[in-house]
Amino acid sequence: MGKIIESFREAFGRALVEIGKENENVVVLDADVKGSTKTIYFEKAFPNRFFQIGISEQDLISTAAGFAIAGKIPVASAFAAFMMRAWEQIRNTVARDNLNVKIVTTHSGFSDFMDGSSHQCLEDIALMRVLPNMKVLVPADAYATKVLLKQIVESEGPFYMRLGRDYTIKVYDEEELKIGKAEILREGEDVFLIACGFMVPVALEVAEKLNDLSVGVADFHTIKPLDGDILLKIAKKANLIVTLEEHSIFGGLGGAVAEVLSEKMPRMIIRIGTREFGKSSRDYLALLDFYGLSAEKVAKRIVEAVKGL
Amino acid sequence: MSESLVHSALSDKLKEMLSEVNNFHLNSSITCLEILKAVIAKKRENDVVILSKGHSAPAFYVILSEIGLLSEDELKSFANLDGLPSHVIRGLPFIEISSGSLGQGLSVANGIALASKLEGEEKNIYVILGDGELDEGQIWEAAMTSSHYKLDNVIAIVDRNFNQLTGKTEEIMSKEPLGEKWKSFGWEVFEVENKAEKILELLFELDKVKGKPKVIIAKWE
Question: What is the mean pLDDT of chain B?
Fold first, then answer.
């Protein structure tokens, strides 16, 4: 396992303050989870530009839409699972009118391990990806969170950024990351792991474990628009493609990759993710392992798959 | 329904427009005509109007045609593929936000109102709500937000026609005591007969009421 660094939410909270200093148009809206999402830092720095909407995600999203109409750049933040109750508001108001609203959620995937299935959001990528105009990002570490957050605020139109809760494992130093451009972190020919979010460092660990094979790893931090060029380059050289995400295998990163490759360059793909709801656990990594998302379990599945090729 | 209003020139125009489309939302459009007429008459250049009950788009188009912003031909194009959309969408005159899905307009109004206060602008945001629409929980989330932030630049007008899609409002989901509900949410409440001149007069009065969001319950007697 790589080096543990700042958490996703810490990175988000601190980056938001930096962005707020540079851009006076940025306002932040919260659904009474500012201490957990760390938007509280923005509130302390810019109390006039922080708006508490209460535990009402639907009102939160539509109010953010109003700010966007008035020319502000609203960042609407809450837990991923509960932001999804505003899906219809996101569809009919934010996405349909292509409004400049930035939706940033924390506690996604299994990262809210203690709270169990109600809080563990494993469907949001699919729900957001299906919406016209909406762009979807899942940063891999604290650095990627900061860099990509700044970019989505500076880009016009609606964005959904999905973050975890606790520590991140260092993936990047000072690399230049860009919305819509996947990062190849390691080259390989037998197997290529395509991952997003916290599963990126997990994929790197898997590649280390499988030292008998040539294993590549790519970070697809932007799930929509998906980087088709890099994906086709990967598909050309790899015998087996494995997608890895802390999300349902239906409609998420694996779904997006399969959609593109099935039309343009059919390849054997194994989608690794979830098929069911989560459960509570005292430990995040133990929970990932339970659902087959630890480096050990992923490596084992790949070894078995390669035998069968 | 009041005979004088049902048979007004405006409602005749509306009926003609909707006669070819199976009277699409005719009744909820008829009761919205006088409200829209008053609001558009009151609206200053930078004020915002949100038709949260988006299915009253036909009434909105009739009012736009009255003030020369839509032609008779455009009215006839209602719901054609290349014509006026059946529910209002962003980009039409005065329309800042697409509607059609109920319950969202008041929240959007709050966002515009908060941004406007942040900029120190003088801007009223008028939101037209259906009485059936008040079943949506989001309306009451937003009603709390408006009063929490003392948004006296938000003016909601409820088209109190006592009807919703499948029956009388008080049979489907009772709304009364409606004024009391809004009052308990921290709003200044006004009740008025659904007639343009009465609503318009009240809208001017409301500019003097500060420190609270305001709601007009426009009753279709």
Answer: 94
